[in-house]
Amino acid sequence: MPIKNFLILLLTAMIWGTAFVGQALGMEYVPPFTFTAGRSLLGALVLVPVIYFLDRFKSPARRAEESTPEAKKLVWVGGILCGIALFAAESFQQFGLIQTPVGKAGFLTALYIIFVPLIALFRGKRSSGILWIAVLIAMAGLYFLSVKGDFSVGSGDILCIAGAVCYAIQILIIDRYAPKVDGVKLSCIMFLTGGVLGAFFTLIFEPGLTLSAIKAALPAILYVGILSNGVAYTLQVIGQKGANPTIASLTMSLESVFAVISGWLILGQTLNSREALGCLLMACAIVIAQLPTKNK
């Protein structure tokens, strides 16, 4: 992979990883659905000028192709489906961060790399033997990371894992629609859908929101909404062009490492030896899952 693509994807992983800190800090002032609505709407708003800028450089034939009713319907259907899955993933993650430290939440969220081939298996796509080894290692890591001495799992851990499953579903939906439509437009519709859903759930379940609380959480919402949602997803589209997808996904999975580092540097959160072993095993599983294999 060219060094330029690697640096872009590394920056993407860093933004996603440090966003866990922004999410944790924002949750000190506003409830989960409010934070999710704010970050999603900001992400959609940031991508509007990007879409306008990129459209100016498209050929007339490409513009005509994307203007057909079929193409418009496809990008809207894909964007809405992705938005629903992303909203569910971010909401589970936000509620999970109430009880789960930033570093642990980052590693649990990285399980989407494992869940993607597992879900694909039910769609008739088999995985290699080395991938199943990665699954077993990840399960061992989850045990040390999440299961306490009395064999109980924290509710925050379960919510983060549920978020990882939803992220895997979102990735598979993108895998289906992204090759057929404009990726930036797909992301914009995805964030707009998540923002509308977030606002709807905010009005129903979080009616006591105050303006002072929103002002206090605004810096965190701006960072996560603009950088994590808007910029990072756009960088992902740019960085993956011409790059080996295996190396690209491995690079982006470093978001979990950046989550641990940022939680330690900014929030002073630490992991005990048992949880650190779980993180190490999960990191090994993530790496093994990305190793290239020969298809029969």
UniProtKB/TrEMBL annotation:
It is found in: Cell membrane. Its main location: membrane. Keywords: Cell membrane, Membrane, Transmembrane, Transmembrane helix. The chain crosses the membrane at residues 36-54, 74-93, 105-122, 129-147, 153-174, 186-205, 217-235, 247-267. GO terms for cellular component: plasma membrane. Residues 7-146, 155-288 form the EamA domain. The keyword Cell wall biogenesis/degradation does not apply. InterPro entries: Diverse_Substrate_Transporter, EamA_dom, EmrE-like. SUPFAM superfamilies: Multidrug resistance efflux transporter EmrE. It is a multi-pass membrane protein. This is Transporter. It comes from Mesosutterella multiformis.
